[in-house]
Amino acid sequence: MPTAKLRHLAFTARDAVGLAHFYRDQFGMRIFHTDPDGSQFLTDGVINLAIIQQALDGDVPTGFNHFGFHVDDVDTVAKNLVDAGLPEPAVRHTTRPFAEYRAIDPEGNWFDLSAHGYLPPGEQE
């Protein structure tokens, strides 16, 4: 089995723009996408860091939210997860150009699966 590559981390923040600017200014990460709600997406050229704007009417707390794997074949990984007794990964309905599927591990942690990766379009591995 090919090794999946951890390429995406996501945090929920009270001030997504301010936190993105912190990582940009302190660590040289590049902001490459902003959602209408203010969520920010940064990269160091290998890892994509999503900083999700916390919604006042939402029930998602601040802090770690999910991670994502870049895999060779989502269908094979999905089948293996189901064979292991986990729910089938769900299609992520989003306009973002990455993270095609959302899955869950045995402890209930969310993770994304992507066959094309998490870097900005045109910068894929």
TrEMBL record:
Keyword Oxidoreductase: yes
InterPro entries in UniProt: Glyas_Bleomycin-R_OHBP_Dase, Glyas_Fos-R_dOase_dom, VOC_core
VOC domain mapped to chain residues: 5-116
Pfam families named among the record's database cross-references: Glyoxalase (PF00903)
Keywords, sorted A to Z: Dioxygenase, Oxidoreductase
GO molecular function: dioxygenase activity
Keyword Oxidoreductase found: yes
Name of this protein: Glyoxalase/bleomycin resistance protein/dioxygenase superfamily protein
